[in-house]
Amino acid sequence: MGYLRFKTGSSEGEARTGTLKLRHGTIRTPEFMPVATRAIVKALSSDDMAELGAQLMICNTYHLMLKPGAEVIERAGGLNIFMNWKKPLATDSGGFQAFSLGFGLEHATGKISLYFPGEHKGSRKPQKSIAKIDNNGVHFRSVYDNSKHFLTPEGSIKIQEQLGADMILVLDECTSPLSDKEYTSKSLDRTHLWAEKCLRAHDTDQALAGIIQGGHWQDLREKSAQFISSLPFDSIAIGGSLGRSKKEMHDILEWIHPYLPEDKPRHLLGIGVVEDIFEAVERGIDLFDCVTPTRMARTGYFYVRPPLGNKANKFKIKMVFERFKFDSKPLDPECNCKVCGNYSRAYISHLYNMNEIVGHYLLSYHNTHFFLNLMREIREAIDDSKFSRLKKRWGI
Amino acid sequence: MGYLRFKTGSSEGEARTGTLKLRHGTIRTPEFMPVATRAIVKALSSDDMAELGAQLMICNTYHLMLKPGAEVIERAGGLNIFMNWKKPLATDSGGFQAFSLGFGLEHATGKISLYFPGEHKGSRKPQKSIAKIDNNGVHFRSVYDNSKHFLTPEGSIKIQEQLGADMILVLDECTSPLSDKEYTSKSLDRTHLWAEKCLRAHDTDQALAGIIQGGHWQDLREKSAQFISSLPFDSIAIGGSLGRSKKEMHDILEWIHPYLPEDKPRHLLGIGVVEDIFEAVERGIDLFDCVTPTRMARTGYFYVRPPLGNKANKFKIKMVFERFKFDSKPLDPECNCKVCGNYSRAYISHLYNMNEIVGHYLLSYHNTHFFLNLMREIREAIDDSKFSRLKKRWGI
Questions:
Q1: Looking at the domain B5-290, which fold is it?
Q2: A152 and which of A20, A137, A388, B209 could share a cystine (Cβ 3.0–4.6 Å)?
Q3: What is the ipTM of this complex?
């Protein structure tokens, strides 16, 4: 299989730290991966990400295969060289976007619309599906030029090999939370078939992760956890609808937990809510990825730690010029990032109000620091057997 | 008068170096001031500007009095604290925007439309004037909310005192290159009247610069140079229409040169073309300001030194994805900025093509470095009596 060495470290209940060695270096888990959608985290350069101490980022195959095209990145020498990022990288399979351009849009579920590639258009309305899935793969149209594409399990692996990240993902079908059990079950069989196809197609030393699906049905999730864990994947990801409530997400993580191999890293796909991160770490998750830090920045929110941040405000505050124009305090007086060291709420709210690029930059930098710093604290807390105390201190 | 100490250093012909001491520090001239329009250089934070080695920036009073408002900046403790910029700052009077919103737009002259505050709308068409000038001041409407404002010479000084920059400018009328001699002459009397009013109104230790106007008429320019030089200004600026041809700009600078005091810095307002900078330094200019580096970045141009850059291509190249997508070279192989050290044309052209914020950032950073580095070379060349050789080496 691919190059990946994972060693668990301290633990507290199911929560655990780990050391994950990939081709471009070794990282400590649990960790949050910022999403470098188009080989760039929105508003933050690779220099910024290095300065922020990011250990691992994930790029979107759907976007990169269309723009600039896998060939451009392959000829550059792979994503690390293209982006000038010296630490590990992951790519997804392109499948999630196939989903969000298909069923996600048709059902117009809140969670999914977060990921709609055309998000800059601000659309949350259901749109006509531009993706069709059959057992061979996903037919979809490019959001850039409406051109037709067909993504197969083998094709996804091939493209991810061209992109050249350290860790890649199998093509799966991410069902909508509104799909019924019959559809989800049939879809799960396809996802499992594709997992095997991806394994057979995989031909490099990139680490390959399998994905557990199964919607919010216990038997389907257990079946999927058992099946994916039985295959020689380097890493295990948990995908799909993670429930329509917090409790459902907890249930899913608890159902699958007994089947997960201890010695493989576990990646909960697309999760970036503070409360969820605590709850998932408590249930044995090692890796997270989400666009929330920079997406929230673009919509004018900045994250705050306790005491300003709490479960009720979801640890974030809306940047409103009229509220902050005379406020000389940093975004979060408890934060030690360079933005909070250098700039006031008055200044940042003015920049944001004027839609200045630097306003987006400063909010994105602070928010990304918030998540990476939270993960550092979680790792330290587990090492010191103080994770449950940290969780309580955050009011979760 | 205000706090400003200027000492000339080396010289070569009329070209000269100088040491300019202002309240927030000492800078070396000739220097180019990046324009921090709304208390921010577009796409570049104060941290970036410090890293780039900028010595002095200029902010726009017109924009700041409207957004966030002078009171916000005054209560923050002034522009330096508001922006977290520790080195010297200048502000303009707001007059230029009164012009560009008035006659400039009516005449739709190319040069002026560069400065149209609504430039993001991409409009170069003549629009109905929303400014009226009389002897007391300028009546104008806000581009932000269409509210009515009246800017007087005394009011401009008062607002600039609230903003608190190290160096401020008198309110003047910047006539259009299409104004006739009769109008320009009448306008010049008003500009001189306002210069005296500003001197009387000025009541802080901020350095105050007078502005020479007079269009492209030798007698008017000489009259203005004589008049402004006779007043106790700390610094002399040259404004207005700098001619409809290179030759006309050279003529204007040569006409006024005999009247300029040796011991005051000379600021050529709004100039940012490489060739013009060389020609103006050769004619004794010490300070420049222009939005070109970041504006060109936004429109997708990157600056290049010789041999790639030359008079014909105006030392800039258009960023076209299809042309650069397989190009692993830096923007300019001759450049020593961090962007050229870290990122390829392929990557930057992809980011620019996708309208990613970081694409704008990288181009803005490189372009600003280009100008600041050019000025460093010009200073060194004058110190070494090699300015004319440098000018020749740049093909000018």
A1: TIM Barrel (3.20.20)
A2: A137
A3: 0.94
